[in-house]
Amino acid sequence: TDIIPGEFEGGHRIWQGSIDLVRFIEEMDVPVDSSTTVMELGCGHGLPGCMMLRKGATVYFQDLNEDSLSKATLPTIVVNCGVEAVSRCTLLCGDWSHVAEKLDGVCIDYILASDTIYTPETIRSFVSLVNQLITEKTVVWIASQKYYFGLGGGTQALMDIIKEMKLPLEVTIVKTVGLESVKRDVLCLKKVDSIE
After folding, report:
1. Model-level pTM?
2. Separation between Cα atoms, residue 162 and residue 177, nearest integer Å
3. Are 39 and 112 within 8 A, CB to CB?
């Protein structure tokens, strides 16, 4: 099985959202250089983070499982970016409730995530962490299905939970792709001054 809640969240599989996010970053020609710091949450293979690493950024790759980081993320980094790029990476293992303390004040320019908001529980954990990490300058991009059938997550659930939790985060749908039956979004989250 791809997902065992709280134990294994699918890190060995390349999810469609990661491909959508890589394509979006490529299309946007995101300005990245050696001073750019990126965090990929729930990275699995880490394809979006690798894209930013290839552009010169320092990248923090986070996943729930050490196994995913060692058997999926690290080999993907080496194959796509070269062994020398590993020096600009940090691999963080653990759930989202402990990520902020591991960063010890690191200022993040971009937060990336793909197919991480598939249940209300993962959305709450995700937005709680994003709210801790985000600054006025941070851009958060999430690739997600509009709705995860049978799981309750997706774009609208994210918007509803942010509102319910009264977090100062604004969600914008920047791109929609996919078939009529399974639409997928690329979302942008930004910090706002006040909650409406």
Report:
1. 0.89
2. 23
3. yes
